[in-house]
Amino acid sequence: MVGRSNVGKSSLINALVKQKIARTSAAPGKTRLANYYLIESLSPHLKSLYLVDLPGYGYARGGVESVEAFEQLTQAYFDPSTREQRRVAGVLQLVDSRHPDLPQDAAGYAWLLAAQTQLAIVATKIDKLNRSEQVRTLRALKENYDSPVLPVSALEGTGLDEIWKLLRQWATEISGS
Ligand code: GTP
Ligand code: MG
Q1: In degrees rounded to 5, what are phi and psi of residue 171?
Q2: What is the spatial distance between Cα 173 and Cα 58, in angstroms, rounded to a whole number?
Q3: Ligand 1: which atom is nearest the Cα of residue 5?
Q4: How many angstroms is it from 171 CA to the middle of ligand 2?
Q5: Which residue has the higher pLDDT, 131 or 88?
Q6: Of 56, 64, 78, 157, which is most buried by a Cβ count within 10 Å?
Q7: Residue 108 C-alpha to ligand 2 middle, in angstroms?
């Protein structure tokens, strides 16, 4: 799970596993470390599969420094020297449905594309938009991002099946490679 601070990474993990395991907060910057959650239901495919809740980028209201912090973190995470024992099946980049055009998200996406991992965009907090706003934002995201775009609401529990389907697919692909 990668995305701006407060975008809903920890909430999405909780919604996916239907448990309150990841700490969430209305104030940005809650998650400060990479937290690993072992997903037993998908683990038969692999020795072990984890959902990883990473700290958000863009905490300091965007700006260059937050992109640099994100780069340091993701660089460490995808570092080839440790990547072998920590194989990345894929990355969900979370983008706030209300803000599909943020430069920090575009910069993060460009970085992740270069890391050559499976990548999908998750449009979070879709419950905050009405129907026509949802259509507009999904269109903008599909234009901005050359990856699958999956709308979710952790609050209402919508779109979660599609995410599980993708995670299962990624798990199968990485276990076969
Ligand atoms: P950091 O750990 O600070 O990077 O944030 P995060 O990306 O983990 O965000 P978190 O899950 O803590 O959620 C931030 C705020 O958004 C909280 O107040 C959540 O309740 C709210 N939120 C998360 N998902 C949803 C959603 O689907 N709908 C609505 N309406 N609010 C949400
Ligand atoms: Mg968090």
Answers
A1: -65, -40
A2: 31
A3: 4
A4: 23
A5: 131
A6: 56
A7: 17
Q: Are 28 and 5 in contact (CB under 8 A)?
A: yes
Domains and CATH numbers, the chain: 2-175 (3.40.50.300)
Query: Is residue 52 very low, low, confident or very high in pLDDT (cuts 50, 70, 90)?
Result: confident
Our answer on whether the CB atom of 35 is closer than 6 Å to any ligand 1 atom is no
Q: Is 27 in the pocket of ligand 1 (CB under 6 A)?
A: no
Q: Does residue 83 sit in helix, strand or coil?
A: helix
pTM of the model: 0.89
For every residue of 86-155, DSSP letters joined together read T----EEEEEETT-TT-HHHHHHHHHHHHTT--EEEEEE-GGGS-HHHHHHHHHHHHHH-SS-EEE-BTT
Residue 29 in contact with ligand 1 by CB distance below 6 A? yes
Using pLDDT thresholds of 50, 70 and 90, give the confidence band for residue 134: very high
